[in-house]
């Protein structure tokens, strides 16, 4: 089983960055690196390492920016990976998938995989394909049970 995490609005508070939307619309990828964590990263790191030790894989599946370009998408992916190295340095991700905005995340799942995502329609699509999906507010609780 792979446990996937969305980033923006799920583990990274992109929407808390001042002027995040105008900056993204002007093709500035830095807000993706500047975002503060949305939960205790030490606790998350410990739980992810424990889940991996129990045979699970850990992944990221996150969108690029709306109205993007291929060059900007690459810059976003670079910033998101840097954010992960900065805030979760002790976690070795099995998969990091950064896809264009609006891409169906369920295309990358296997039956039984888990997704944490702040968007309800994405969670519904994931569960329709025989996975489990949860909102960000229960990340640590669910991981403690795995």
Instruction: Tell me the radius of gyration.
Output: 15 Å
* Structure classification: alpha/beta
The CATH topology is given as Rossmann fold
CATH class: Alpha Beta
Q: Please give the order of strands in the largest beta sheet.
A: 5-4-1-6-7
Strand content: 15-25%
The major β-sheet equals: 5 strands, parallel
Mass-distribution shape: globular
Q: Which key phrases capture this entry?
A:
single chain, 146 residues, alpha/beta, Rossmann fold, 5-stranded parallel β-sheet, two-stranded antiparallel ribbon, 18% strand, globular
Describe the structure.
- The protein is α/β, with parallel strands linked by helices and 146 residues long.
- It has one domain: Rossmann fold (3-Layer(aba) Sandwich), CATH 3.40.50.
- The chain is 39% helix and 18% strand.
- It contains 6 helices and 7 strands, in the order E-E-H-H-E-H-E-H-E-E-H-E-H.
- The strands form 2 sheets. The protein has a 5-stranded parallel beta sheet, with helices on both faces. A two-stranded antiparallel ribbon has the order 2-3.
- Helix 4 links the parallel strand 4 and strand 5.
- Helix 3 runs parallel beside helix 6.
- The longest helix has 18 residues.
- The radius of gyration is 15 Å and the shape is globular.
- The N and C termini lie close together (11 Å).
- The mean pLDDT is 97.
Give a concise summary:
The protein has 146 residues and is of the alpha/beta class. It is 39% helix and 18% strand.
Summarize the SSE layout with pairings:
Layout: E1 2-5, E2 12-13, H1 20-25, H2 31-34, E3 36-37, H3 41-53, E4 57-63, H4 70-87, E5 95-99, E6 114-116, H5 120-128, E7 132-134, H6 139-145
Parallel strand pairs: 1-4, 1-6, 4-5, 6-7
Antiparallel strand pairs: 2-3
